Model the fold of this input.
Amino acid sequence: MRGAWGIVALVLGLLLPAVPVAAPRQSEQRPDPKQASALPSYVRRVESAVIGIKVEVPRERPSAATLGRERWGSGVIIDRDEGYALTVSYVLLDAERIEVTLRDGRRAPAKLVGLDLEVGIGVLKLHGKGPWPAAPLGDSTRIVEGDVVGTVGLNDDGALVGTAARVQAVRRFSASWEYMLDRAFIVSPYNAAFGGAALVDAGGSLVGVTSLRLGEAPHVNLAIPLEKFLPGKDELLAKGRVASRRPRPWLGLYTAATNEGVIVSGLSPVGPARAAGLRQGDVIVRLNGEKVESQEHFYARLWQGTMDQEVQLVVRRDNRLQSISVRPADRYRIYRTTDN
Done:
């Protein structure tokens, strides 16, 4: 189990060069859970609601090759009666078996409720009788650069990792795997147990979910604001996805920006781009006849299309231009995103 995060980090490091990602290492300094009372009060307020999540994925599922069959992450309970909890989507993707560890030592099975792959949020539900310790929900729209925050997660030994931090920036964030948020939090210093750790404001209310470790040392965390989850919450819990939102066309590309366009740094083995003939190293210079100016522009233009509309790409390969048509896919039909 402890080696699973190492596999995840290696694979992500190979496929997602635009966003340096690493998993918690056993050698990093972490607070002893018995010393949690030394943490700031706004971190301690959410501590009891923070959970560890152990996930098993069948070998044949699409994400097993890249994210591993055994995964560990953090999460935070948001519903005291039903036991719903939030984490990041990559922890739960294709999950078949989920076990949750609470701060009081209890362990409980859980089921995959749904994923919002556009936002990067996942929801699970604990089995058992409540009430469960739940985090108070805050207003992430009020968070601004410089605000005091805290990140709280559990490492794969179940030890608390709490970090008093500040919001370094509030900005747009795009990543290599066809992912972009128009508003994201960059938090410093980073928390080693970042995958699903709770982000709380100065009052101890939940305002986001910590997703990634970014950059070179000293690292920072990317956190997904709670406002990205709440509008589609009821639909996500009921249907396993935000079905009323028009699905984004998905090509299965990993990309990085260059001066000439967007370079293909990797391809999903189950994505339509690979089947259409795109290769690693191709530079995408046009999309549907329009010049590709940046990674953000590429995503915005791609997502304007519909699922039944072919995407026309012009790529530079071996100093020659080549046109390639790709029929996009709906990721929710490829990956396992709910038990509902």
